[in-house]
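User: Batch of two.

Assistant: Item 1 of 2:
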Amino acid sequence: YHTGEYIERYNEIIEINTTDPINIEIMEFLQQKLVKILNDKGIAIETMPTSNIRISFYEGYKEHHIYRWLNEFEEAPTLLLCSDDPGIFSTTLKNEYYAILNNVSKKKRIPLIKDFLKNSKIYAF
């Protein structure tokens, strides 16, 4: 990607009409295919709930996209629960776990914690 062809393409302006309707079915299909590719390649997704809530359009943790990944996807992505810049977002990893698990049924909490912990050991760097 350091050659002329790629540099030219990088500098190319791509315009997208944001008023065009989005086909939700196609978007969801593409998201699920992308998650499958990530999982097949052993790539995990770091998710930082408090940071995501504060810098996005979500009004609260219940709206966070992690619940779609966990409940609506055929194959959930490999997830790492993280905290993002505790000094800025005034949170800890413990708080991130509480925030997400608070909106999960009691039956799903322990398996979810086990998955997060397993993934954090595998993908630690």
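Item 2 of 2:
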Amino acid sequence: MQNMIRKIILLLIISSISVLSFSQEILTENQKLESLCKVWGFLKYYHPAVIKGKIDWDQQLVKFIPAVISAKDQQELSNLYLGWINSLGSISVCKKCQRTVIPDSLKRNLDMKWLENRNLFSDSLIAAFNVIRDNRGQHI
């Protein structure tokens, strides 16, 4: 009888570990809000439609807080951000932006590795971030 109980417990432990290792990572509220602040700030300084100043960008932040908090997973959060980006309009290719070289002295505090976080963002959202980043200087 004890041998049977041990086998059942072992089976439960193994199945629990496999379910946990293959399930999609659940995002905490703090992670979601942190991502909102980063995306909002990135779009504020990089998206041509926002840079023009015709959008109340602070109000956009407040408007998106409830939706971001209620996002259930990475895909839903990414879709929310993609919808937000798409609502700002398309971005044309900026040929002079791609030739711009940022001096090392201006890169000290510029860390954009978070844009590539595949645990937080979908591949399509990361691609959208890259288009925005690479074509940022159109307002100049």
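The radius of gyration is 21 Å.
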